[in-house]
Amino acid sequence: MIPIAVVGIDCRFPGAPDKDAFWRLMMDAVVTDTEVPSQRWDVDNFYRPDGAPGSMNTRRGHFIDNVDAFDNDFFGIAPIEAAALDPQQRLLLQSSWRALEDAGIDPRSLAGTPTGVFVGVMSSDWTSIRLLDFAGVSPFLGTGSGYFMTANRVSYHLGLSGPSVAIDSACSSSLTAIHQGCAALRSGEADTVIAAGVNLILTPALSIFYTQAGLSAPDGRCKPFRRDADGIGRGEGVAAVVLRRLDDALADRQPIYAVVKSSVTNHDGRSNGVTAPNRRSQVALMRRALSLAEVDVEQIAFVEAHGTGTVLGDMIEARALGDVHETRSGEPCLLGSVKGNIGHTEGSAGIAAFIKTCLALQLRVLPPTVIGDGPNPGLRLDESGLKLAGAQQPLPGNSVLGAVSSFGLGGGNAHAIVESAPAAGSPTPSRRGVVTVSAPSAQALRRNAASMGRALRTVDVDRVGAWCRSTNIVKRSHRHRVVLDGDREALVDGLEQVAAGARPDLVSAGRPHRLPAAVGLLFSGQGTQFAGMTRPLYHANPVYREAMHTVCAVLRPHLGPDPLAAILGHDAELDHTSLAQPALFAVSYALGKTLLQSGIRVNFGIGHSLGEISAACLAGVLTVEDAARLVVVRGRLMGSLPPNGAMTAIDLSVARAEQLVADVPGCVIAAVNGPRALTISGTAEAVGRLQAVVHQHGGKARGVAVSHAFHSPLMAPIVTDFRDELDWLEPRPAEFPLFSTVLGRQIDGSEMTADYWAQQICAPVQFHDAVRAAVNAVGADYLAEAGPKSGLLTLARQAGLPSSTRSLVLCSGPDSDGNELLGVAATLLRDGYSPDLTPLYGEPSGPLQRLPAYVFDDTNRFWFDGPIAYSPERARVGQVETAATTAPTVERADTEHDRTEGEVLALIASVGNYPVAELVRSKRLADDLGYDSLLQVRLLDRLRKEYPQLRHVAIAEFLPRIHNVGDLVDFVIRRSDKTA
């Protein structure tokens, strides 16, 4: 069979709000029974020690806390609908989300994918009570009740298009759901599966049934395979696991708890009673699972049994297990049942046992089973190759196999064989990273930032990078985001400050972008070089290092000096143009290549003089080999000229500079970088005289680190030779828009012939015109400079760049610490983009790390009598208020439009049962407030009644125009104005 990986787990069981607490509970052999909570029913009305008809013989059971709490805002469910939802549906929504995150999956990324949902569910007390109140039946109560919606609710709210099935085979429901999920993956019907189980005890009905059937333990505890076994103790739980085909999970670097080797189901057929188990069917089930898994019974280290603690059930199961395991010649098979800890959780019993098995295989220890006075001697376990695991048992070996059984009241059986996960590789050690946390609201963001900060504080310093990269994948898709980069202490400090409501600069709000970030890429020219440029980045970022090795290997045959040594070392000759130009080309190419690999979209490229070669190369106009030959020839010929030239940067207008140049023979304008940012080129003596004149008139002049007077007539002697050496050049069309600094306009790449490069030698650099043309033609979200410094970013802003266009610093010059690309990643993520972070981190991503689960808001409470506490934003100040059940009052408005707006807000609040203060104009009716088709129809009906001018508005006219609260207010006001 195709092996199936268990990649994500989330659960809530009695005494255990998450899987880590569940594991501790089992390892400590805790038994979780309590008296029936008063919220469920008055136990005194039904408890009779003798189990008289219509009564239950126990006051106790195993219950989970806060089952009325639900973060409806997170899922965009209106309070009026949330109040009608079976709490089992609410719990499944939250558990499914958390399980996906645990699997290293951003749940929102699955929208539209063939992800399957299979839910095991045995009862719905909520439905039994609510739907019998015929006068109170509503559309929301109908869709909020019933087994059929347990899986469909998850699929709908996550946008999943795979199979969505609720399964009721009684006590084996959730293990059967896992089996069906595995089958869907093996058949190709789904690529990812959420398999879940849920059980809540809201009425005494089943407790009375168990008592009357002689199945209920008076103390409310299960005692599996024990001497004192006397029946079932009922329990609650909700759990979800995420399943993938093993090959897919490994390819996506997902963490793996365990691997399902095989799973099977069958039925007891006709036995000695519809509720009585069948030994022969159980034996056939287990042997079939062994055959499909292609393993021998001796290889099974333990069985997590059904183990309810009923005398008949334990006896038949032990005998069936003995039939399979009695031939073992080595160590006995360990036997356990988690029901001794948390009771029989019915619809979630199978998944509870499955999760225990997966965690035991991952952590290589089998938790103890609560054995009290010891095993039932009548079961003769030692004669059957079995041993009750009454203490923690290590599970040694490279590969460990366990099995899980779950048998349903009524005869539906399930069994799975599960293996320990293949060894996972260790992440590349990295002490810095970019952490991402997102949430639907500012308050939720603070809550989750606090949780992430606490978790990060415990992460090993060498795993910080890998842990952070997992957050970039899993925690990025909500509109409110905090993103910051640094080492562990800096990250923890930033998260704690955000959690406290500080550091708004680290927080952004806006919908994630679907398209890649659009970047205008600038390429540095000569004069930006310095000894040791990009050395820290070279050592910190293997992707940049590999790109540098590639380009230097191409340059090396054409150069005397080793270009890499010259770039990274302390070579004083780097300022000489014959070496400076190839070195700067290598740096710009490697930086640009690294950025392009992150998946950004280059909206335009502009090279400053020499930088045009890098731009042409990255745009595909030139191959890296052609660009290397070109830059070496250019540098060699320019360097062969007498070094009697100089260049200076001045802050004068073009008109004023032309006047000065006319008065100082031997100088020309070499570059127009901005309205008052020019470069003058000429003989050293002439440039010196011009600098003095500029200073005399109160201007600024700064020498440029060059060996020759570029872009001046002093270059003319080499132009013909340069042109002749480029006869081989065959440029291709550009893969992204290029804007020429020779022509000051866009070119298609094919214009960059030998003649173009020859013209460039003496022509002034029209950088300012090129940037203006690019901004006017295409624009960009960001500007980045591929070079050892970021001088062009400042100059580009003088060309009318929109203030919304932000700068990305790839390398910050001699003071660089090599981590600027992490800052780039942080900026892009904070702004809602999703780049490929491997190039920006500079290392293979390695296995994904487990992260803290999303922390849902628990201040909103819904029970049988509706929303009993609803305080999404007021929770900040510790207030709990009852949700509005009638239209809130609105203060007197100053204008008719204000009055209408207040009335519409009050109406929206009334229909959805929201506090009116939440209804800001930007709130989306469907996504934020849960106004789906049912609520929209109800809302339109109310609007028609309140505003006669809307009585002829059809739903088809209404829906396409109304997206948020503001749209609705404006729609009503416009219609009111037309009829006034």
UniProtKB/TrEMBL annotation:
<dbReference type="Pfam" id="PF00109">
    <property type="entry name" value="ketoacyl-synt"/>
</dbReference>
<dbReference type="InterPro" id="IPR016039">
    <property type="entry name" value="Thiolase-like"/>
</dbReference>
<dbReference type="InterPro" id="IPR020841">
    <property type="entry name" value="PKS_Beta-ketoAc_synthase_dom"/>
</dbReference>
<dbReference type="InterPro" id="IPR016035">
    <property type="entry name" value="Acyl_Trfase/lysoPLipase"/>
</dbReference>
<keyword id="KW-0808">Transferase</keyword>
<dbReference type="InterPro" id="IPR006162">
    <property type="entry name" value="Ppantetheine_attach_site"/>
</dbReference>
<dbReference type="Pfam" id="PF02801">
    <property type="entry name" value="Ketoacyl-synt_C"/>
</dbReference>
<dbReference type="Pfam" id="PF00698">
    <property type="entry name" value="Acyl_transf_1"/>
</dbReference>
<feature type="domain" description="Carrier">
    <location>
        <begin position="895"/>
        <end position="976"/>
    </location>
</feature>
<dbReference type="GO" id="GO:0005886">
    <property type="term" value="C:plasma membrane"/>
</dbReference>
<dbReference type="GO" id="GO:0005737">
    <property type="term" value="C:cytoplasm"/>
</dbReference>
<dbReference type="GO" id="GO:0004315">
    <property type="term" value="F:3-oxoacyl-[acyl-carrier-protein] synthase activity"/>
</dbReference>
<dbReference type="InterPro" id="IPR009081">
    <property type="entry name" value="PP-bd_ACP"/>
</dbReference>
<dbReference type="GO" id="GO:0071770">
    <property type="term" value="P:DIM/DIP cell wall layer assembly"/>
</dbReference>
<keyword id="KW-0597">Phosphoprotein</keyword>
<protein>
    <submittedName>
        <fullName>Putative polyketide synthase</fullName>
    </submittedName>
</protein>
<keyword id="KW-0596">Phosphopantetheine</keyword>
<keyword id="KW-0511">Multifunctional enzyme</keyword>
<dbReference type="InterPro" id="IPR036736">
    <property type="entry name" value="ACP-like_sf"/>
</dbReference>
<dbReference type="InterPro" id="IPR014030">
    <property type="entry name" value="Ketoacyl_synth_N"/>
</dbReference>
<dbReference type="Pfam" id="PF16197">
    <property type="entry name" value="KAsynt_C_assoc"/>
</dbReference>
<dbReference type="GO" id="GO:0004312">
    <property type="term" value="F:fatty acid synthase activity"/>
</dbReference>
<dbReference type="InterPro" id="IPR018201">
    <property type="entry name" value="Ketoacyl_synth_AS"/>
</dbReference>
<dbReference type="InterPro" id="IPR050091">
    <property type="entry name" value="PKS_NRPS_Biosynth_Enz"/>
</dbReference>
<dbReference type="InterPro" id="IPR014031">
    <property type="entry name" value="Ketoacyl_synth_C"/>
</dbReference>
<dbReference type="InterPro" id="IPR001227">
    <property type="entry name" value="Ac_transferase_dom_sf"/>
</dbReference>
<feature type="domain" description="Ketosynthase family 3 (KS3)">
    <location>
        <begin position="1"/>
        <end position="420"/>
    </location>
</feature>
<dbReference type="InterPro" id="IPR014043">
    <property type="entry name" value="Acyl_transferase_dom"/>
</dbReference>
<dbReference type="InterPro" id="IPR016036">
    <property type="entry name" value="Malonyl_transacylase_ACP-bd"/>
</dbReference>
<dbReference type="GO" id="GO:0006633">
    <property type="term" value="P:fatty acid biosynthetic process"/>
</dbReference>
<dbReference type="InterPro" id="IPR032821">
    <property type="entry name" value="PKS_assoc"/>
</dbReference>
